[in-house]
Specification:
This protein is an alpha+beta fold. The protein is built from four helices and eight strands. A hairpin with a 3-residue loop joins strand 1 and strand 2. It has a single domain, classed as Gcn5-related N-acetyltransferase (GNAT) (Aminopeptidase, 3-Layer(aba) Sandwich). The structure holds coenzyme A (COA). The site of coenzyme A has 18 residues, from strand 5, helix 3 and helix 4.
């Protein structure tokens, strides 16, 4: 039994492991889920993502966590807090990517709200941001539903992104 980092009404969040490769590939190989990322990810890139996440746990005591159905243990997606550079400043940013088969259930909102509260209260981050492609409406809705406010538009990853944030 893996100790969860967080749990909510329907979800359990735990640390990512090397053997989550197959779970992550469900999202990373789906062109629809990766529509607002540069491209889908292959196996090598997915292993690099896992390594980046494990490094974040070690360096920042945070990172993306694996989200599972609390009752069945079914893999649903990933959500967590990662360092992100915004206009030259390192901020702590919320990230959420869910398997397409479970979209439209409110899981991303439930997980993102729990992670944001955990970041502000337990990890004592002053502020949590969300960097969102201006066309990614489902993601904008998640940020707004968890109480984040629009701050500005900037250029990141070579494209226009909205910066949302919430503070203590
Ligand atoms: C961004 C992403 C996580 C949003 O997923 P989502 O399923 O739309 O978001 P939620 O889990 O919060 O679900 C919300 C929807 O479920 C509905 N819903 C159903 N049951 C619900 C419940 N019990 N509680 C809350 N909402 C519920 C809501 O009405 C809402 O519907 P709407 O889209 O018509 O407004 C998803 O599109 C994704 O993984 N995309 C790929 C990766 C990505 O782009 N990540 C963001 C990068 S910035």
């Amino acid at each position: 039994m893996v100790t969860p980092i967080l749990s909510t009404k329907r979800l359990s969040l735990r640390k990512m492991k090397v053997h989550d490769f197959k779970n992550l590939m469900e999202i990373f190989s789906d062109p629809e889920a990766m529509k607002y990322y540069p491209a889908t990810k292959n196996g090598k890139q997915t292993n690099e993502w896992i390594k980046w996440t494990l490094d974040n746990y070690a360096k920042y005591n945070t990172g993306l966590w694996i989200v599972e159905d609390k009752t069945s243990g079914e893999f649903l997606g990933q959500c967590g807090i990662v360092p992100q550079e915004v206009d030259g400043v390192i901020e702590m940013g919320i990230g959420y990517l869910f398997a397409r088969r479970v979209w439209g259930n409110g899981y991303a909102t439930e997980a993102a709200l729990a992670c944001t509260n955990y970041g502000l209260q337990q990890l004592k981050f002053r502020k949590i941001v969300a960097l969102i492609d201006v066309k990614n409406i489902p993601s904008i809705k998640v940020a707004e539903r968890i109480g984040m406010k629009f701050k500005k538009t900037t250029i990141k990853w070579g494209k226009k992104v909205y910066v949302y944030s919430v503070s203590k």
